[in-house]
Amino acid sequence: MENLKGKTALVTGASRGIGGAIAQRFVDEGANVIMPSRNEMDLADVASVAQYVQAHANVPLDILVNNAAINPMTPLDEITPELLKAFEEVMTVNLESPFLLSIGFAPGMIERGGGSIINIASLWGILGRGNRALYSMSKHGLIGMTESLAQLLGPQKIRVNAVSPGFVGTDMTYQNLRPNQIEDIKQGTPLGELVPVGHIANAVLWLASAESGYITGQNIVVDGGWSNVGRIAPPK
Predict the structure, then answer these.
(1) Which of 170, 153, 180, 174 has its CA nearest to residue 67?
(2) Would you name the residues annotated as active-site residues?
């Protein structure tokens, strides 16, 4: 299949994990994929993002995937320089930069008759998580941005959607969680496993393709049913 043949896509955070899987899936479907390195565009620096957009304004971009994000474990019990720094970095990388990229590349998409913007949000963009409040706040904001830009850009034929992954079976997940935690997640998931990273890529591919041509302003949760069970009866 070549659902994206002739299309050009930009994917942030594509060196590994979810972003890497998305980029590879796009390549497999015939797309030309741009994967900016940190040296080319520092998402923690809004000036760097703005400069990148200006320098690449003539790139015939059809698809933008805002995937890159950070999720620091910063103590939240008092206001400290560390907390203020983490707050600024999380909001810049996870929210401000996706906004600037979306607004910055939209004019080119409009000139070419439209496009698709997909934001990688999170379960913690629809649920709260106390010890990861900064990350959760940023992802709630990203979903709000998705809905707002869908309204703003829809008349110009740009679709804007989000995908919210659950607990994905990436190397980072296995590094950050203990075996018993992973087992608890599996037991609390109706489909019984961590989310295969390829299923996130499949959802993004669908939103990028013409097959979802009348879908915009939506947030697709890909978590094997974990959040649905958790809201009704938390796993024991």
Answers:
(1) 170
(2) 135
Q: Helix crossing, 197-208 with 17-28: angle to 10°?
A: 50
Could you tell me the CATH superfamily of domain 8-221? NAD(P)-binding Rossmann-like Domain (3.40.50.720)
Strand order in the sheet with 32-34: 32-34, 8-11, 63-66, 115-120, 158-165, 219-222
- Pick from 81, 65, 58: nearest CA to 23: 65
> Residue 133's pLDDT is what?
94
Residue showing tokens 């629809």: 126
User: What residue has token string 């590879």?
Assistant: 24
Instruction: Break the chain into its structural domains and give their ranges.
Output: 8-221
pTM of the model: 0.94
Element (H or E) spanning 119, and its range? strand 115-120
Task: Give the CA dihedral 119, 79, 72, 124, nearest 10 degrees.
Answer: -40
CB 55 within 8 A of CB 10: no
Give dist(CA 52, CA 46) in Å, integer. Answer: 10
The sign of the torsion formed by the CA atoms of 22, 116, 120, 14 equals positive
Q: What is the mean pLDDT of the chain?
A: 94
Q: Is 230 helix (H, G, I), strand (E, B) or coil?
A: helix
The 10s digit of each residue's pLDDT in 199-209 is 999 999 999 99
Spatial CA neighbour of 118 closest among 153, 151, 152, 160:
160
